[in-house]
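Model it.
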Amino acid sequence: MARRRLSKALFEFIDRGSEDDIALRHNRAALERIKLLPRVLNDVSRRDPAITLFGKPHALPLVIGPTGPAGYAWYRGETALASAAAIAGIPFTLASTSNTAMENILQDGGGTQWYQLYVWRDMEASLVAVERARAAGFEALVLTVDATVPYNREFDIRNGVTFPIRITPRNTIDTLLHPRWLFGTLGRYVLAEGHMPRYVNIQIPDDLAPAQVRSFLAKNDTLNWDFLRRVRDMWPRTLIVKGVLHPDDAVMAADCGADGVIVSNHGGIANDAGVAPIDALPAVVAAAGDRLTIFVDSGFRRGSDVLKGLALGADAVIIGRATLYGVSAAGEAGATRALEILDAEIRRTMGVLGLTDIKSLTRDYVVLPGQPLA
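Modeled.
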């Protein structure tokens, strides 16, 4: 449904990884190779997938991760995602590159909301968002650390994708071929707000030309552990580091005062030769699981995938594309439907495994490739 409604360029921006999409495919293949080992003759008539994160209960072991294109896919799509998360009883993470003011999303979306931080070339301008998110009332800050150099997304170049949007003959034709998105999303921004979608939570100088804005939005490649310590000093609430794959980096994050890490390869976008997060997860849990709340993302599409991640030690699973497809297709209703599908699949798989609650899910319920049955 999302593919039919969105322009080709925008859908591929959401749907694909980088270079040859190897990491994107490998994320799925790694999850598919892991098998579940059920137990039988347990009364599973009542199944509870609820979890607790940072002392707060949530209805499902899921978090909606930061997905920057949400506001391009649907008018105020970030608010739609936040509302869907609140209905489902799970946290929502707002991306830095959102098109609606963070204060409005927090107020209109409700529920538990976290803010994700990219660090641009102008580090000080980037850090303004930290103070703004704190003042607005976001409960956690998610610092993305695996995006310090440009992605090699050749299909974006071919599709003429640029942010901010630059009108070209190619994307004009592409847009005209998708009138529901043209009038339902871009048209609503123009009519309601007087402009095309734009980044409103990044402190970009007003006098910059479009080419200068693109240069301003280049990622900062000087980040180091001292920077994480600086953010820790600035942010008094929960701090999560996103993009960790090596167990030693998880330990360092804990040493720097982080409360959690997200084991992630950015959905296959950052490094096409990168390891699948589900493969890296056990080592990260072994190294720092007693010091940090551990999340995992990238490639999770089914409720059974979620239980695989939890069984290998994750405290919750971050989803991105699943709800982004939903919001692209039908706004809040689409995102809510995506979460309903995952909810039903999680509960069904719990029943198949003989589980009544998530806390009883252990490593014994998964079989890794090449591992003999006990």
